[in-house]
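[09:14] KT: can someone run the structure on this one? pasting the chain below
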Amino acid sequence: MDILSGAVLEDFSGDVEAYWQANQEDLFIERDLEDLVTKQFDRLQQLDSDAYKLLCRMGCYRYQDVPTVPIAGLFCLLWDIPENRHRRVIKSLQDRSLIDFEDGEFWLHPVIRAEAIIRLRAGEEWNTANRKAAEFWTQNIKTIETLKEALRAFEAYHHYMMINDFNMSGVVIVNQRPNQWEGNEPLGRSFYRLGVLQQTMASILEIVHKVNPGYVLSRLYNMLGGLFWLTGSPNKAIEAHKKSGLISKEFLENNQESKQDSFWFKRLTRYALFNIGLCNLDLWELEISLQYFEEVLAIFEKDCSSENGFYTNEGGMETWCCLAFTTSYLSDRERAFTCANFAYNSIASEKLDSWATGYCPLLLGSSYKNLGDFKKAFEMYEKAMSYSEESHYKQVRAKALTGLAEPYRDQLDFKKAISHHSESIEYLKEISAKCDLAEAFYQLGLTYQVMSNFEGSVENFQEAIQLFTEMEAPKQVERVRQSMQNWK
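[09:31] RB: done, structure tokens below
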């Protein structure tokens, strides 16, 4: 009706009868509606060429994950029109009911957008319009603290994909923005934090074989490894981290990088080792994990500043927390206490990124729980929980709930333990975090076992075994089976 009323007002001076006489044969058939839209575009092209340009260019926007575009997103498409005419051009489309708008946000009806795309593609402005739109989304989103902001920033990825600029699509994912929790956070990590794992993984997989070797590709493999790890594919994650490290190492050895790139390539080389250690933790290859963490620590000893033998530069705190976690499960109590206490006493003064701010307390919580210090275990889990609520970090919240359930179980507070287990499992199912979900089922099985609830225990142990089997983690399966033997 907006299309019809606009045509009546614009072309027939509001004379509905005259409009009817001219168009009555075409109104109620879909194909003829398309013809009507085509005529509207043709008329607009004749009457207001600037408005016609904008209408066609607006076809580059998707109106899907982000259904509307602010007025600045229209201004950016008027690159060849004087700025003092921008609002007039937009109003011309509003007056003709060719664009929808509400509260300063604009969008195209699907029928109008379909015609706009056809015309934009047929001309010479398809690439330019998509680049301008991508630049708008990149510049418009200054910080990412919510899913809405992340999705808006990610629109730039889709615009670059439209014109097959895979390198710039990759840049969008690794592009960093400040937020209240850390100095800079890449868009890909923002999606980790917000629990949008599968979509981010699919987007990286779509381009990772088409991006030129260099920093962006190394970082994409780094993020892909993180996503495989978070979603319960540690073996795939290891392969991705190896590729990230290899790319960085090759560029460092060939001296092909700038000073800034050299900094990042060194960091990504270290990240690769650290993350492979994390993946082996999920496979329950504790000795292998320990080797990787010790290798990372040796790099800090060589390259980073030290104080009393402890290396605390960026990334160092995570390594100490992982060493505490690993050695506490390997029953090296003296070393576990040393590592845990150093990290515990230093964590407040360290500048950590969003991942470490959430995961370091989780690792320390587990370490102290294994070492029997329930007070510090609770403190660390509560710290992780508090951060997860502030930052919308769903996976950290779920793991903190599982972690809190364990000392409650050890203190025989089964009501709180079961409540935390159940809430954690629901979160992890929602974000498809297979490994953490398997661990949550395993821990719930242990709680039912302590409660002498045979049926509940076996049911959850079986759930854990199935997920660990899908992950190709035989040592995790064996770990669960050994716990089941306690019934015999």
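[09:33] KT: thanks! Strands lie at 69-70, 100-102, 105-107, 176-177, 185-186, 306-307, 310-311.
[09:34] RB: yep, looked fine to me
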